[in-house]
Write a structure and sequence with these properties.
single chain, alpha/beta, nine-stranded mixed β-sheet, 27 helices, 57 strands, disordered N terminus, EC 1.2.1.41, transferase, G-glutamylP_reductase_CS, ATP binding, signal
Length: 1275
């Protein structure tokens, strides 16, 4: 029998002498307890208590945290842990990091020591025949089917392994993780066959026990490590005939053990699976991270893997010791390696839970470290350095069975070390292993019920649960911020005065912890110390909004309600809730200030009144008077009272779908004038945010007086809360919010009323600009207007909060408007206190258009003179250009973010500049009559002549990365074609681009068209530039395939000219010349492998396999160090093939290529059409008929015969230079020079001509005579 006292905050206590759990009866909406219950009256006449008598205390509290010492680790790991990826005896592992999704699963044949891959056959082509070489992908659960044909079934029945069940599990094992060299026994997993059938055999005229279906069940653990593999079969019988066939099915199913009682729950203060593990370094809270490898296998200096709770990990990479051996100091080397492993100089503490506060010492524990000094005892003269770090984490579930909390109870850094003298200093392989061990001891189920089906004593569902530490030395009084807490040996009670009455009292079970404190789980938001964060000035640029941590979203009435004002806009509201939930789950703190209660209540009351009147009038006056019914004017406060509950219920239902809790807070203007209420509100909001709850705030319009007409913003420290715009601004400043998003029914702020002809959306609004803005009327519903929004936004901006006003009702953007704003995209109007030093990108585009029109009006000789001048400047200013380029190269190398191919593209040299100058002079010489050239003349009728002439396209946007030589090339082509030009270069080439653009403008200045070429230096995102459809006429991307694809996806209403991929093929025919083959392939692949016109896939006729020509090709590629990937058909011809390609649509951009086999030139053409990118494709053959077939049938921009793919280039085509290579079929195709940057217009010259003169009874007739073209300039 447990004695305890239940006390109320005002002093009344009730003595109980039974073991009971009590809670307010009003909070119980379901009970399934098999135990005795009791209703206890409240001594003060308040709500009665619902109490359950317990037979077993374990039903509520099943486990307490325990102390973990260094000596306990080995014991606990052995007792609770499973096999780790690394045996303690292994100092240096031989396997790689882990299987990634889609990686082939490795198998090992012990008898022959052969390493292979687990296969999942697939069908090929329309015939559906089986292709056996397809590897099964890790975590790729899927089913495939295919058909096998048998020419001689009697023979195949006994010899074909595909028909024998034993071949799918016998004689090989599956590897837990990939390996590099040696296979250790601990890495092998046997394949278990479930009721395996016997071997296939012939009986009479039938093949018996033929495998028709194979099902693999593969269990994995964490992000890597295959734990078990089982296989089961279905068999069938095949009769021998001339068309014997078999359809086989193959299934791969991956699964992991997940117990229902450890699934994460919303609001649980403990760690949830996948949450980052928190550590502290000198008091600062950080995420635990481990080493991460670059593409070349070296350890990244900047990027690290975040350790996620509950997920075992293993990474490996190589680190160079040579740069740190300057003083040959062993201790110095050790510390460098320790720092590399830990990511910081010293790791001190780890967080017990995922919601730990850095200021609360009881929520942190010290990390135990076993370093190299332990192993150095056996080798006193050795310098032992760490090569492997094993992070061992012990955790357990504690607290309520109804909502268990995961806590980390111990963490150890265990280093495996080796003598320094045995290591290769240039590249030392280092490994990090993270293992999580669950130490939870779950209680036995009550009354002999099954483990998975037993019931808790009762089910109570609260929106959230939180943890409170109450110190013993406070004796009978535990204080939680503003709330008195009375505790007894078994129970605590909290009654915060400022929390709403519905959840103001709850009885809290407590448990004693090892640090002599009481931990209590509560269901109410009691107040703690608010979170502190740096808050000063607002963000200066949109690109900084992605760093916003605390965000307020204000929803106007027009956003929440439908356009017909007959209900809520459910689809729009659901989309907003989804975006807020997404940002909340990213770790941000979201708050919503919502309108709509008055409008929603008005709609509900109007319907009720209409229904009531219609019934009465139908009964007394007949149907004829229904149309004359008048709805009375509804008082706003009554509408708010009727609409508030329905609005909040809808929010709660929607947020529940994303496992997020929401809490409602109603405020009035008076609450901000009362200092105590302000502190209470501030504390409540901070506590809700700390517990990952989304506060939904609204003005309590049911009790507030009507707004005073002259009460408005009166300075930084005073704001009258008269609508939700001012409320949102006040809360944003009070809560030190990073960002306030105001959603309305307009796109943002315009320089004149929206809808007028000259109205332009203001992208960035600065304080002081409001004088130049004309405000229109307010929205159709709600109390505010755009003027109120702007004033509230400026007040919040002065308080240090960034503001964006945007449209939340537009069907095309409302589904992602909030996330777009947070990502820094150009949406709505951004309020900023910092004006840019130069023009905005919109102004630059307008300047480029005006300059381009002036440029097009110049004489051809004048445009050529500008280009000649630019060519001279490239050689005259060579030293300055190379010096700027050197800065870019040094910064790129120091940051280590550019791959080697991109570094090559970034580099400029004297020879490159000379080649650029030569190309520019070619452009100048060939552009004399480009603009204004007549390409067609037609006499429509007498004295009515029509001409078609070439004209510039308009304003070009060229986006390029890592290629500063692109800037003068594209500039020269734009000048020659009379186009205005916007250039957006990569930041990695900022210095080079700056000086090259300066030289370009210097050349343009000789004829006063300096502004025709603009370099975008602002922080504009590429996606935002692609939306300027009214200012830009054509986008030309120059860069990686990913860049091109992103631009093609982002461009809205602007054509994009370019190619997303350069998958170029070379087909070697049976009649190919031996001398030509190796030269063309070497040049196509090895001359510049990073180019978009480099060979990526080599197609070889099947008859050339195992011939001297094939051997020469392979030998040449090996000498050039080209990595070969085998296509599916090529791999099927080889016993031991190179790594099989994952896709035949890969642009490697490096010394790598794919080799595939085809049966004919027709199949080569089909392969190119299926897997190519319509860029450049080549045939090598001496058969003219075959070559012409290839040239005519391959549908690519460039098709060559006996020539390298590298000829696909504007300079080599004699175009002088190119803006890119287009694979589209409209306007321009292939290398695009001046001609591709021109369009046409029609000029009609007449003399009082009208169409009626050409009618049946008119006086004129159409002639449509072709006229000779004017003589072109011979120069």
């Amino acid at each position: 029998m447990v004695h305890f006292i239940v006390c109320w905050g005002w002093g009344a206590c009730l003595y109980r002498s039974v073991s009971q759990v009590c809670v307010e009866k009003s909070l119980i909406f379901r009970s399934n307890t098999p135990y005795s219950t009791d209703i206890v009256s409240d001594p003060d006449g308040q709500d009665p208590l619902f109490c359950v008598q317990l037979d077993d205390s374990k039903l509520n509290y099943f486990q307490q945290p325990q102390d973990i010492k260094e000596s306990d680790f080995a014991e606990f790991l052995e007792k609770y842990g499973r096999h780790s990826f690394l045996a303690p005896s292994q100092v240096q592992p031989s396997f790689s990091a882990f299987y990634r999704a889609g990686d082939p699963i490795l198998i090992y044949f012990d008898s022959s020591s052969v390493l292979s891959m687990l296969r999942q056959p697939i069908k090929m082509g329309a015939s559906g025949l089986c292709v056996d070489g397809n590897p099964a992908g890790f975590l790729d659960s899927k089913s495939t089917s295919c058909i096998r044909l048998f020419a001689n079934l009697r023979k195949s029945c006994m010899t074909d392994p595909a028909l024998d069940a034993a071949s799918y599990y016998r004689d090989f094992t599956v590897l837990k993780v990939p390996i590099n060299d040696t296979v250790t026994p601990s890495m092998k997993v046997n394949v278990t066959a479930v009721s395996p059938p016997g071997a296939p055999h012939m009986k009479d005229n039938t093949c018996i026990n033929v495998v028709s279906e194979v099902i693999y069940e593969i269990e994995y653990s964490g992000t890597s490590g295959i734990q078990s593999v089982s296989v089961q079969f279905k068999v069938s019988n095949i009769s021998v005939n001339s068309r014997s066939s078999l359809q086989q099915h193959f299934t791969m199913h991956f699964w992991t053990r997940t117990l229902s009682h450890v699934l994460p729950r919303s609001g649980n203060p403990g760690y949830i699976t996948g949450a980052p593990l928190l550590i502290a370094n000198s008091g600062a809270k950080q995420r635990m991270s481990i080493l991460r490898s670059e593409s070349d296998g070296s350890c990244s200096q900047f990027l690290r893997h975040t350790v996620q709770f509950g997920r075992n990990m293993r990474t490996g990479c190589k680190i160079s010791l040579s740069p740190i051996l300057e003083d040959d100091n062993c201790s110095y080397i050790q510390q460098k390696l320790y720092k590399a492993f830990q990511g910081m100089s010293r790791t001190e503490d780890f967080a017990v839970t995922g919601s730990a506060h850095s200021t609360q010492a009881e929520e942190w524990m010290t990390i135990l470290i076993e370093n190299c000094s332990v192993e150095a005892v056996n080798c006193t003269s050795c310098c032992m350095v760490p090569v492997t770090l094993e992070i061992q984490i012990l955790w357990t579930k504690v607290g309520l069975l109804s909502n268990p909390q995961a806590q980390v109870v111990g963490t150890r850094h265990f280093y495996h070390c080796q003598p320094l003298k045995f290591l290769d200093m240039s590249m030392v392989p280092v490994t990090t292993i993270v293992t999580f061990t669950d130490m939870t001891d779950w209680p036995e189920p009550p009354r002999g019920q099954p483990q998975m089906h037993w019931k808790l004593p009762f089910d109570i569902f609260f929106p959230f649960k939180i943890s409170l530490i109450c110190r013993r030395h406070l004796k009978m009084l535990c204080r939680a911020a503003l709330s008195p807490l009375v505790r007894s040996p078994g129970w605590c009670f909290v009654s915060p005065p400022h929390v709403t009455a519905a959840i103001s009292r709850l009885y809290l079970p407590c448990q004693r912890l090892r640090n002599e404190s009481i931990r209590c789980w509560s269901n109410i938001p009691f107040i703690t110390v608010p979170l502190s964060r740096a808050h000063g000035k607002s963000f200066a640029h949109r690109s900084e909004l992605k760093h916003a941590k605390r965000i307020v979203v204000k929803l106007g009435s027009a956003v929440v309600t439908r356009g017909d004002e007959c209900g809520l806009a459910l689809g729009r509201l659901a989309s907003i809730v989804e975006q807020v939930s997404m940002l909340q789950n990213q770790g941000r703190e979201m708050m919503i200030v919502t309108s709509g209660a008055v409008a929603f209540g008005k709609q509900r009351l109007r319907h009720e009144i209409l229904l009531s009147q219609s019934v009465r009038q139908a009964l007394h006056s007949g149907q004829s008077q229904l149309k004359d019914m008048a709805i009375p004017v509804l008082e706003a406060r009554a509408c708010a009272a009727a609409g508030q509950s329905g609005l909040m219920a809808l929010y709660e239902a929607m947020f529940t779908q994303y496992s997020i809790c929401a809490a409602q807070i109603l405020v009035t203007n008076l609450d901000f004038h009362d200092e105590q209420k302000r502190r209470n509100l501030n504390g409540t909001l901070h506590e809700l945010l700390r517990m990952n709850i989304v506060p939904i705030i609204n003005t309590n319009d049911a009790v507030v007086p009507p707004p005073e007409p002259n009460s408005d913003l009166q300075g930084v420290n005073v704001i009258s809360v008269k609508d939700n715009d001012s409320l949102a601004a006040r809360l944003a400043v009070e809560m030190k919010t990073d960002l306030l998003i105001v959603l309305s029914d307009v796109e943002g702020l315009f320089d004149s009323p929206p809808g007028s002809d000259d109205a332009k959306l203001i992208d960035i609004f600065y304080p002081g600009d409001q004088q130049s803005v004309t405000f229109g009327t307010k929205s159709r519903v709600g109390m505010g207007g755009m003027e109120a929004k702007v004033k509230a936004a400026l007040w919040a901006l002065q308080g240090g909060t960034s503001v964006v006003i945007a449209n939340g009702t537009h069907p095309k953007i409302s589904g992602h408007v909030i996330t777009d704003i947070v990502e820094g995209k150009k949406v709505g109007t951004f309020f900023s206190e910092v004006k840019p030093a130069g023009p905005t990108v919109e102004q630059q585009a307008e300047m480029a258009r005006a300059g381009g029109r002036t440029l097009a009006a110049l004489q051809p000789e004048q445009r050529a003179e500008i280009i000649y001048r630019l060519a001279d400047l490239l050689t005259d200013q060579r030293e300055e250009i190379l010096l700027a380029n050197k800065k870019d190269l040094e910064e790129a190398e120091n940051k280590g973010r550019l791959a080697l191919p991109l570094l090559k593209r970034l580099s400029l040299s004297t020879s490159k500049l000379n080649s650029l100058a030569i190309g520019l002079r070619q452009i100048a010489a060939s552009s004399q009559d480009s603009v204004g050239r007549v390409i067609r003349r037609t006499r429509i009728a007498k004295d009515l002549d029509l001409e078609q002439v070439t004209v510039p396209i308009g304003v070009l946007l060229v986006i390029f990365e890592s290629r500063p030589d692109c800037l003068p090339q594209v500039s020269a082509l734009a000048i020659a074609s009379g186009n205005g030009l916007l250039l957006k270069g990569g930041k990695e080439a900022a210095h080079s681009n700056q000086i090259l653009h300066h030289l370009t403008q210097e050349a343009l200045s000789i004829h006063g068209v300096r502004d025709a070429v603009q370099l975008v230096n602002t922080r504009e995102e590429v996606e935002d530039l692609c939306r300027l459809d009214k200012l830009i006429d054509l986008i030309i991307p120059r860069g990686s395939s990913q860049l091109v694809r992103n631009i093609q996806k982002a461009a809205k209403g602007i054509p994009v000219m370019g190619h997303s991929e350069g998958i170029c093929h070379v087909y070697v025919d049976t009649d190919a010349s031996v001398e030509k083959v190796t030269r063309i392939i070497r040049d196509s692949k090895c001359e510049y492998p990073a180019a978009c016109n480099a060979l990526e896939t080599l197609l070889i006729h099947r008859d050339l396999l195992r011939t001297p020509l094939f051997d020469q090709i392979i030998d040449m590629l090996r000498v050039e160090q080209v990595k070969i990937h085998a296509g599916p058909k090529f791999a099927s011809y080889l016993t031991f093939s190179p790594s099989e390609v994952k896709s035949l649509r890969i642009e490697y951009g490096d010394l790598e290529c794919c080799i595939e086999v085809v049966d004919s030139v027709q199949e080569a053409v089909e392969h190119i059409h299926k897997y190519g990118s319509s860029h450049t494709d080549v045939i090598i053959t001496e058969n003219e008929k075959t070559a012409e077939f290839f040239l005519q049938h391959v549908d690519s921009a460039c098709v060559f015969w006996n020539a390298s793919t590298r000829f696909s280039d504007g300079y080599r085509f004699g175009l002088g230079a190119e803006v890119g290579i287009s694979t589209s079929r409209i306007h321009a195709r292939g290398p695009v020079g001046i001609e591709g940057l021109l369009t046409t217009k029609w000029l009609l010259r007449g003399d009082n001509h009208v169409v009626s003169d050409f009618s049946e009874h008119g006086s004129m007739k159409y002639l449509h005579e072709s006229l000779p073209l004017p003589q072109r300039n011979a120069n």
